[in-house]
């Protein structure tokens, strides 16, 4: 559990007139550190990128197989199965439109799409 004292230590971000996020400066501070607190090794990025590639491959193959089986057999055309087809189509959209952004950023070891790409990624994952 996080204590109230620890929450009070977290600086809040304010938006200035230039539409950039800036942390509030302490009275005696001249600059904020630019290096991240946590350094992630390149093997972690590569492992995560490989994992998302596997999710993409298996997600596409299984969902396309589901669509093929549904459309090839007339007996499966029931209302319950249409719901499963809808879920399968949504998952294919997730795999195609969302995972490639994570794969590209994982293998390059930083977010390559800037502030413009974040709303698109959040749109596809919600």
TrEMBL record:
Residue ranges of the TM segments:
48-70, 82-103
Where does it live in the cell?
Answer: Membrane
For this UniProt record, the keywords arranged alphabetically read as follows: G-protein coupled receptor, Membrane, Receptor, Transducer, Transmembrane, Transmembrane helix
Q: Which Gene3D superfamilies match?
A: Rhodopsin 7-helix transmembrane proteins
UniProt-listed PROSITE patterns: G_PROTEIN_RECEP_F1_2
Extract the InterPro entries matched here: GPCR_Rhodpsn, GPCR_Rhodpsn_7TM
One GO molecular-function annotation for this sequence? G protein-coupled receptor activity
Please state the protein's primary subcellular location: membrane
Pfam families, A to Z = 7tm_1 (PF00001)
Q: In this protein, which residues make up the domain named G-protein coupled receptors family 1 profile?
A: 62-126
Q: How does it sit in the membrane?
A: Multi-pass membrane protein
Q: Name one GO cellular component term.
A: membrane
Query: What name appears for this protein in its UniProt entry?
Result: G-protein coupled receptors family 1 profile domain-containing protein
Highest lineage ranks of the organism?
Eukaryota, Metazoa, Spiralia, Lophotrochozoa, Mollusca
